[in-house]
Amino acid sequence: MERSQLVWIVLLLACLLLSACTGNEQETLKDANHHESADRGKEIKTKEPEASHKEITLSAIGDMLIHSRVYEDARTDDGFNFMPMLEKVKPYLNDSTIAFANQETMIGGEALGLSSYPAFNSPFAVGDALKKAGVDVVSIANNHTLDRGEKAIMNATNHWEKIDMMYTGAYKSEADRNKLRVYETDEGISVAFLAYTYGTNGIPVPNGKGHLVNLIDKKVMSKRIEKAKQQADAVVLSLHYGPQYERMPSAGQKDLVQFAANEGVDVVLGHHPHVLQPIDWVEGNNGHQTLVAYSLGNFLSGQDEFYRRIGGIFKFSIEKTMENGESTVKVKEPKFMPTFVKFENRANFQVAPMHQLTDDELENAKGHYQDINQHMSRWMPELEFIEE
């Protein structure tokens, strides 16, 4: 073979070999690109963040109506001690994130002169006992708010502040009233508390001092509720309303609760009838569900008629869900524990869980307890009763 032919053959083989290597490199690069693309796909398909759920519990009690026979029973050598009266129910208030009470008598203090019906004034020690029992918020808007005038209100609000108790419904000044009461919890759920009363037993509110007591006025309440909805996750409204001693809510009570539901209030706590009225869900505008206890009755008082000795602890949960940057709040799991005010010869007053009573303490105790349960759940058959 000639030398020139040999050279051409060598060159041809070299070209074929180079072409094969280049193809392999391109195939290898393609495979690499494919794997890189697949890896990027895995990164893009990240897991969506799960919704977060937070929850708190709230307890509410009815009227703290401190007659002279009650505060005299609490008198000690160096003052007053109401804690023995609340010892049996303290565990059921202490186990809640927030506990609320309707303090119907002003705690104006002994120096102002203690007094009973019809113009009440109670010792500071009532507030101290509520604090020790686990109460965090009190409503002081009721028909007895002005019983002993502005001085009693100032004394009371000063003491509430001294013991770090949130109060609502009556205030020291207009500036104080303008501070919306919002309870911030460690769980990150905030609750606004509003309180209003139908009147003050004919005692006129002093001119220019409307801050001394919140009177029911739908226009005023609507604006305040809207502000509360903007500043808090949930809104609880305390209403002092309705005929006394009636075990079923009146048309006026129902109308006011419907108004609250339409305005977007989450929970309504009713007071003033001094007897228990049923618990219910009320549907407002846009399907909003409002939980209502039409009346929580007397929690501690000197009234001796049977149904006026029965109150209770109303419990429910508030759940907050965060998802995609938006929050939703739901009131759920309402529960109730009836209570009974025990006493002997108008002394030894004590609030006791009704399910714990014996026939020695109350004749036919179990039958009365079952009747109260049926009464409170007549519109809410699923209502749970606390017996632990």
Q: How would you characterize the overall build of this protein?
A:
- This protein is α/β, with parallel strands linked by helices and 388 residues long.
- It has one domain: Purple Acid Phosphatase, chain A, domain 2.
- The chain has helices at 3-44, 68-73, 83-86, 90-94, 125-133, 149-162, 174-178, 218-231, 251-263, 365-376, and strands at 52-65, 75-76, 79-80, 98-103, 137-139, 166-168, 182-184, 190-197, 234-240, 267-271, 276-283, 289-296, 298-301, 310-323, 326-344, 347-353, 384-385.
- The strands form three sheets. Strands 1, 4, 5, 6, 13, 14, 15, 16 and 17 form a nine-stranded mixed beta sheet that branches. A six-stranded mixed beta sheet has the order 7-8-9-10-12-11. Strands 2-3 form a two-stranded antiparallel ribbon.
- A hairpin with a 2-residue loop joins strand 14 (310-323) and strand 15.
- It is globular, with a radius of gyration of 33 Å.
**What is the count of structural domains?**
1
Helix segment count?
Answer: 10
Indicate the structural class: alpha/beta
Mean pLDDT: 91
Shape: globular
Order of helices and strands: HEHEEHHEHEHEHEEHEHEEEEEEEHE
CATH superfamily, by name, is: Metallo-dependent phosphatases
CATH class division: Alpha Beta
CATH architecture type: 4-Layer Sandwich
**How much of the sequence is in beta strands?**
25-35%
Which fold name fills CATH's third level, the topology? Purple Acid Phosphatase, chain A, domain 2
Write down the Rg. 33 Å
Give the tally of β-strands: 17
Uncertain segments are: 1-11, 13-46
Tell me the major beta sheet: 9 strands, mixed
Distance between the termini: 110 Å
Tell me roughly what share of residues is in helical segments.
25-40%
